[in-house]
């Protein structure tokens, strides 16, 4: 058991005060995702989309990593093999918790992308329809976040990691959004053992060899302690 690949979702940041998407009171119960998380929605009403991401950017910047983020950073530090963290989250809490080389497959709130020339830069705290691209100067800035209908980032790298994983863990994700929800099957097909850590069974829980349910701030540190042989 040398290489561990970990997929995280919104549930790992819930106890840091960042809402999940599909739980009761979740983000998609408040905002129609078609309006704020699709290229079509951005074309229709860029002001609304900028307001939505500006608010999330401010909230994420104020949030603190919790015990689950810190535990994964510790696993990365102390595990004798490779630990790769792939996240669907657009917050920076893994890095704030000490993790390295986190693969943000859905982008980050801290990034800006030019819808015109494709240039990327560090997002200012707030953006609007006049925010110029530092490269082409056109006012076509958008959040560097992957919207529905767009291809997630780093997919080749992620599939390479899944193909060479000995252990695949999914943490705080509902298993409703592909391609991430299919990673467990990719890992299983490559011979990896698989574990789900979540508040409740996800939509793909039956695909895992092992499941542990409870709040991430408890089940993740316990799992990491088990992995590092720290619990008798
Ligand atoms: N600890 C552990 N798990 C939790 C906690 C918690 N404190 N709170 C909620 N959860 C679990 C929920 O039970 C649920 O299964 O986290 C999961 C969150 O699911 P979603 O809201 O669907 O979020 P996620 O799976 O990350 O969504 C995937 O969909 O909306 C798009 O691009 C967005 O990256 C996102 C993707």
From TrEMBL:
<feature type="binding site">
    <location>
        <begin position="198"/>
        <end position="200"/>
    </location>
    <ligand>
        <name>NAD(+)</name>
    </ligand>
</feature>
<dbReference type="GO" id="GO:0008270">
    <property type="term" value="F:zinc ion binding"/>
</dbReference>
<dbReference type="InterPro" id="IPR003000">
    <property type="entry name" value="Sirtuin"/>
</dbReference>
<dbReference type="InterPro" id="IPR026591">
    <property type="entry name" value="Sirtuin_cat_small_dom_sf"/>
</dbReference>
<comment type="function">
    <text>NAD-dependent lysine deacetylase and desuccinylase that specifically removes acetyl and succinyl groups on target proteins. Modulates the activities of several proteins which are inactive in their acylated form.</text>
</comment>
<dbReference type="GO" id="GO:0036054">
    <property type="term" value="F:protein-malonyllysine demalonylase activity"/>
</dbReference>
<keyword id="KW-0479">Metal-binding</keyword>
<feature type="binding site">
    <location>
        <begin position="88"/>
        <end position="91"/>
    </location>
    <ligand>
        <name>NAD(+)</name>
    </ligand>
</feature>
<dbReference type="InterPro" id="IPR029035">
    <property type="entry name" value="DHS-like_NAD/FAD-binding_dom"/>
</dbReference>
<feature type="binding site">
    <location>
        <begin position="9"/>
        <end position="28"/>
    </location>
    <ligand>
        <name>NAD(+)</name>
    </ligand>
</feature>
<dbReference type="GO" id="GO:0005737">
    <property type="term" value="C:cytoplasm"/>
</dbReference>
<feature type="domain" description="Deacetylase sirtuin-type">
    <location>
        <begin position="1"/>
        <end position="232"/>
    </location>
</feature>
<dbReference type="Pfam" id="PF02146">
    <property type="entry name" value="SIR2"/>
</dbReference>
<keyword id="KW-0963">Cytoplasm</keyword>
<feature type="active site" description="Proton acceptor">
    <location>
        <position position="106"/>
    </location>
</feature>
<keyword id="KW-0808">Transferase</keyword>
<feature type="binding site">
    <location>
        <begin position="172"/>
        <end position="174"/>
    </location>
    <ligand>
        <name>NAD(+)</name>
    </ligand>
</feature>
<feature type="binding site">
    <location>
        <position position="216"/>
    </location>
    <ligand>
        <name>NAD(+)</name>
    </ligand>
</feature>
<feature type="binding site">
    <location>
        <position position="133"/>
    </location>
    <ligand>
        <name>Zn(2+)</name>
    </ligand>
</feature>
<keyword id="KW-0862">Zinc</keyword>
<dbReference type="InterPro" id="IPR026590">
    <property type="entry name" value="Ssirtuin_cat_dom"/>
</dbReference>
<feature type="binding site">
    <location>
        <position position="53"/>
    </location>
    <ligand>
        <name>substrate</name>
    </ligand>
</feature>
<comment type="similarity">
    <text>Belongs to the sirtuin family. Class III subfamily.</text>
</comment>
<feature type="binding site">
    <location>
        <position position="117"/>
    </location>
    <ligand>
        <name>Zn(2+)</name>
    </ligand>
</feature>
<dbReference type="InterPro" id="IPR027546">
    <property type="entry name" value="Sirtuin_class_III"/>
</dbReference>
<protein>
    <recommendedName>
        <fullName>NAD-dependent protein deacylase</fullName>
        <ecNumber>2.3.1.286</ecNumber>
    </recommendedName>
</protein>
<dbReference type="GO" id="GO:0017136">
    <property type="term" value="F:histone deacetylase activity, NAD-dependent"/>
</dbReference>
<feature type="binding site">
    <location>
        <position position="136"/>
    </location>
    <ligand>
        <name>Zn(2+)</name>
    </ligand>
</feature>
<feature type="binding site">
    <location>
        <position position="114"/>
    </location>
    <ligand>
        <name>Zn(2+)</name>
    </ligand>
</feature>
<keyword id="KW-0520">NAD</keyword>
<dbReference type="GO" id="GO:0036055">
    <property type="term" value="F:protein-succinyllysine desuccinylase activity"/>
</dbReference>
<feature type="binding site">
    <location>
        <position position="56"/>
    </location>
    <ligand>
        <name>substrate</name>
    </ligand>
</feature>
<dbReference type="GO" id="GO:0070403">
    <property type="term" value="F:NAD+ binding"/>
</dbReference>
<dbReference type="InterPro" id="IPR050134">
    <property type="entry name" value="NAD-dep_sirtuin_deacylases"/>
</dbReference>
């Amino acid at each position: 058991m040398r290489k561990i690949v970990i997929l995280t979702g919104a549930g790992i940041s819930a106890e840091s005060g960042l809402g999940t998407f599909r739980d009761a009171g979740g983000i998609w119960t408040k905002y129609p995702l078609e309006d704020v998380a699709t290229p079509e929605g951005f074309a229709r009403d860029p002001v609304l989309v900028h307001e939505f991401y500006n608010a999330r950017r401010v909230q994420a910047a104020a949030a603190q990593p919790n015990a689950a983020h810190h535990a994964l950073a510790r696993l990365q530090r102390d595990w004798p093999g490779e630990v790769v963290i792939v996240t669907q989250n657009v917050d920076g809490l893994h890095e704030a918790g000490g993790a390295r080389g986190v693969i943000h497959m859905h982008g980050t709130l801290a990034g800006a992308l030019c819808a015109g020339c494709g240039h990327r830069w560090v997002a200012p705290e707030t953006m609007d329809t006049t925010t110029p691209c530092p490269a082409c100067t056109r006012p076509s800035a958008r959040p560097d976040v992957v919207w529905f209908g767009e291809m997630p980032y780093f997919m080749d790298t992620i599939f390479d990691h899944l193909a060479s994983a000995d252990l695949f863990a999914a943490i705080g994700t509902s298993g409703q959004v592909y391609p991430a929800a299919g990673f467990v099957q990719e890992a299983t097909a490559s011979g990896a053992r698989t574990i789900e850590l979540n508040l409740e069974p996800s939509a793909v829980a039956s695909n895992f060899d092992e499941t542990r349910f409870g709040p991430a701030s408890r089940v993740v540190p316990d799992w990491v302690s088990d992995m590092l042989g720290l619990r008798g």
